[in-house]
Write a structure and sequence with these properties.
Elements (H helix, E strand, L loop, with lengths): L1 E6 L4 H12 L3 E7 L21 E2 L2 H7 L4 E4 L6 H10 L3 E4 L6 H14 L3 E3 L5 H13 L5 E8 L9 H11 L22 E3 L2 E7 L5 E9 L2 E9 L6 H11 L5 E3 L7
Bound molecules: nicotinamide-adenine-dinucleotide (NAD) and ligand LLHOTIJI.
Ligand LLHOTIJI binds next to helix 6.
Main location: cytoplasm
InterPro entries: DapB_C, DapB_N, DHDPR_bac, NAD(P)-bd_dom_sf
Family: Belongs to the DapB family.
């Protein structure tokens, strides 16, 4: 049994992670961390069935009261880093799907994980299909170096571009040199029209009700187009990756950023 704490249980992803623990015999949900409802139990909240799991608003108190192996953090960009620091300081391995980490955050958290000799995972996207999209895009960029991305998410998303789009751009950047794309004299008549610029790659972020998580990576060459697309149609699509991460993080003694590092 792996003792789990989920942070953000009332959120769209946190709710699915709680249900994953309920379904999976290897995962034991010992407590949850929520910004509200301190001192109550999950079964007192609407939608949680009979899960008599204690709710804490103070993560440190939660880790003092329980023996925890893994923290699954699915909160907001404002709290992801702080929660990882608290977990590592208390000897708990974090598996974090929360997005919005900067390069500096990842460097600092890597140092902390190594100092504590603990595994940690930051996964911008837990869906296996999205990992394949990123890996295939990295390969394609070796041959087709003009790239644009369109990522689409629901309209409650706080960060843009998505963590997945940034990670895809970082992987592609390992295979192609920075280059200016489009006409050298192009000019935006409306600010933002050409999207965000990552080493010359353009990233376009769509936010609409009804969307879940979608990304298309578009490659252009002389007389040809190539595109790779992934759609998450519901949040269950992320749960096999959460389980995979929980299993892997127990065997690690450093921070891994991106599930592409865990699958061949
Ligand atoms: N890695 C992935 O595959 C993946 C997939 C979907 C979403 N995400 C990311 O996961 C995060 C959550 O997404 P969501 O769609 O579930 O968002 P959401 O807004 O539905 O849920 C976030 C939850 O976090 C809670 N929260 C905020 N601050 C907190 C704190 N200090 N302590 C405890 N709980 C706190 C909120 O109350 C809310 O219930 C986002 O950063 C999103 O980008 C990642
Ligand atoms: O719903 C979200 O928010 C998602 N965020 C991740 C990202 O930023 O890439 C992954 C997919 C869903």
């Amino acid at each position: 049994m792996i003792n789990i704490v989920v942070a953000g249980p009332r959120g769209k992803m946190g709710y699915e992670a709680v249900q994953l623990c309920e379904r999976d015999q290897d995962l034991h949900l010992v407590a949850v961390v929520d910004s509200k409802h301190n001192g109550r139990t999950l079964n007192e909240l609407e939608g949680f069935g009979n899960q008599e799991v204690p709710i804490y608003s103070d993560m440190e108190e939660c880790f003092s009261d329980h023996k925890v192996d893994v923290l699954v953090d699915l909160t907001t960009p404002a709290f992801g880093k702080k929660h990882m620091e608290i977990a590592l300081t208390h000897g708990v391995r974090p598996v974090v799907g929360t997005t919005g980490f900067t390069d500096k955050d990842i460097q600092e958290l890597t140092r902390l994980a190594e100092e504590k000799e603990l595994g940690a995972i930051i996964a911008p996207n837990f869906a296996i299909g999205a990992i394949l999209m990123m890996k295939f895009s990295q390969l394609a960029a070796r041959y087709l170096t003009d790239v644009e991305m369109i990522e689409q998410h629901h309209d409650q998303k706080l960060d843009a571009p998505s963590g997945t789009a940034i990670k895809t751009a970082q992987l592609i950047a390992t295979e192609r040199k920075e280059k200016q794309q489009g006409h050298k004299d192009e000019k935006e008549d409306l600010a933002g029209a050409r999207g965000a610029n990552f080493e010359g790659m353009r990233i376009h972020s769509v936010r609409l009700p009804g969307r879940v998580a979608h990304q298309e990576v578009l490659f252009g060459g002389e007389g040809q187009l190539f595109s790779i697309k992934h759609d998450s149609l519901n949040r269950r699509s992320f749960m096999p990756g959460v389980k995979l991460s929980i299993e892997h993080v127990l065997k690690l003694d450093t921070l891994v950023y991106g599930l592409e590092n865990l699958i061949d």
